[in-house]
Each structure stands twice: as structure tokens, then as C-alpha cells.
Amino acid sequence: MKATLLAKENGDAKFTIEFTAEEFEAARVKAYQENKNQFTIDGFRKGKAPRSIIEKRYGDVFAEDAINDMLADGYPNALDELDIEVIDQPRMEFGKIEKDAPFTVTVTVAVYPEVEVKDYKGIELEKVDAEVTDEDVNTEIENLRKRNARMVTVDREVKDGDHIILDYKGFVGDEQFEGGTAEGYPLVIGSGSFIPGFEDQLIGAKKDEEVEVKVTFPEEYHAEELAGKEAVFKCVVHEVKEEELPELDDEFAKDVSEYDTLEELKKETKEDLTKRKSAWAENQMKDKAVEIVCENNDIEIPAVMIDDEISQMIRELDMQLSQQGLSFQQYLQFLGKDMMAFREEVKDDAERRVKMRMVIRAIVDAEAIVATEEEIEKELELLGIQYGLETDKVKEMVGEKNLEYIGQDVKMKKAVDFIYENAKVK
Predict the structure, then answer these.
(1) Disulfide engineering: 62 pairs with which of 31, 228, 324, 406, CB 3.0-4.6 Å?
(2) At a CB cut-off of 8 Å and minimum separation 6, what does 4 contact?
(3) Could you tell me the residue ranges of all domains in the chain?
(4) Can you identify the CATH homologous superfamily of domain 2-110?
């Protein structure tokens, strides 16, 4: 096989792939072996007719499969050989098929655009405050207390923040509606789990006494038969529990940490918060730096790249929804949108994502940023930690070919660091 570049202009690459007569013949033989059982010829058992007999009756019937088989490897190999990165499906023109002669395919395909990026050094950034206050530390300690609280059953009326066990029956008029009934339902008052106003009306309820809760379903409620309607829920609270927080003392510090005193716990908490907040602030400034560089550069983005990004966003959302037991189609129904409307809605965000990657990648090229073996190894280690796997196992799963993508991610991160390190932080 030989690949020859003819032209590269107007966002397209045009090249030829020439297969030798010997390669074409070998592909025909392979196609014959794989498909001969489909032909029935008088005088021969099924699958036993010679290729010459089949072709004499039906013509060069194995040529199409042979061409597809040659292109399965030949097309990607040609892209590698000519160093062409495509962004769309190719358009192919097939040459004349002749006996004992080479076969040529002429390919035209949209390629990744060349991008010249400017004004990415010396941009001005506002410093993001990363100071940790005593209030921040106290809030973190209070959250730690809540995580270590125990639930205690109390004999009193319901208050905000209580955990209750509830029975309820929902009615619209005199009709009890489907899906509006539950027994032994656990509910945290103030969690916002139910329709607005529902939980507030349970405050003050007494154990085992019926309480009527009157609500109006939102106009955009997912169950259309209930949307905008007034309803009454007959509720009975069977159990009330409240959080009992541990005392804030040295014993608490010993129970929840490796420290002997509350002061030591607070000191370590402040140091940990400082590291986290500093990292958060730096990431905020890096995001802003990339945003500014994108604003500094006008780039013509091929429509196909935006369409592909939208499709990728939909796949990502579909995976997230599936983890919650929902399908993407159900999600669209809940929003009251069709696929076309959704794609149009996320188009601007997709365009921003594509532009950001194009700009960062252009900086990778402009600054000749590389990914070292050590950096790629570190990235694989982080993936291993994320998925609970040994680095060698991650490397095996990723595969040699996909290591290139890992390296590209490393280079992109280094390019973002380069923008930030060369910025003027005020």
C-alpha cells in the first residue's frame, strides 16, 4: 500500500491510497473464503464451488468486500503515514477495478484546523482570596460533629431538622391519586425533599395524630395530571428523632482523629483547609486565565467539531443519568424537550469547550510542550488510585495506543500551567 498526499487546503486533505495488484488479489481470496458458503452452484456442494466458477456466473462479486477489508487497515495507516488528523467521515472515490492491476482510492476528508494562538503570555489575573478564617475552621469542626452525631428518639412535637417516620395519603378533591401514598417513609424536615410547603406544615405535629397538609403542585410538575393542582395529604408521624451532637472537647478530638486535644485538631483542620482552599483558588485563577486567552483569540470552529462535542456531552449525561436509574429519553420528557431542542440549548457550551481545547492545544504546539514518561506514569498512578487498581493493571487496560491520549492530557494540563505561570496576578 502507498499513500500520497495531493492537497491540503480549505480545511480538507485530499490523498490517494494505492493497493498493489497482489494486495487486491489476496483480499479477494480472503473475501472468497469468508463468503463462499453463500453461493449455491449446480454440481457443487454448498461452499465448495471454486472462486473462478462463482465469478464466471456472478462477476467480480468479491471485490467490494476485498476493498472494504483493505481499507479497514489501509485508511488509518494512510492517516498515520501522512500525519493527518481527521474530524469527520471521509469521502471516497474508487478507481477502476482491473484484473492484475493496482487499485486506487482517492480520499477527501475534513482535517483538524491549524490554529495560531496569540496573547497568552502576560495576561492579568485578579488574585483569588485563599485565606482561611477561624469561622471556616469552626464550620469544618461543626460539620465533623454532625457527621459523628447520633440519632435519638424524642417524645415531643416535630421541629425543623428532625428525622421523622411518616405515613401519608394524598388526595386531589375526594380522589386519592396514584403515587401519593406511603407508609413508614423517612423524612428530614427542612430537606426540601417534598413539594414546597409540605415539610413546613408538619412542624408542630404530634406523634400518632393525623395532620392535614395542604399544598399546590408546581405548574411544571413532572406528573402532568397533578401539575398546578391543589392537594391534601393526610399525614401521621410515628417517630421523631433528633441529632445529638458530641461535646466539643478533647475527648471528641480523640474519637474522631489522631490528635489528643481539640486545639491540635483545630490546628490540623486549619492547615488542611488552607491547602484545599489554596488549590481551589489556584484552579479558579487557571480557569479564568484560559477563559481570557480564549476571549483573546477568534477561532473558526468547524461545525462538525461542535456537533461531535454535543454528542459527547449527551453520552456523558446519559451515563450519569443511568447511575440514577434514568434514561436520557426520560430526562428529555421531564424537561419537556426533544433531542433537537436539547442539542440547540447546549450548543454554546459545546462551542466553548471545543474552543478551549483548540486554544490550549495550539499553545502546546507553539511552546513545544512534551509529556515525559515520568509524567505519563504519574497520570496512570492517579487513575489507579481513582479506580482502586495497580498502575500496571491500568496501563494494561488503557493499552499502548491510548497512552498517546494520556500524554495529550498531560500536555494540555502543562499548557494551562504555562498560561498561569506567565500571568500577572494582581
Answers:
(1) 31
(2) 15, 16, 18
(3) 2-110, 150-244, 262-425
(4) Trigger factor ribosome-binding domain (3.30.70.1050)
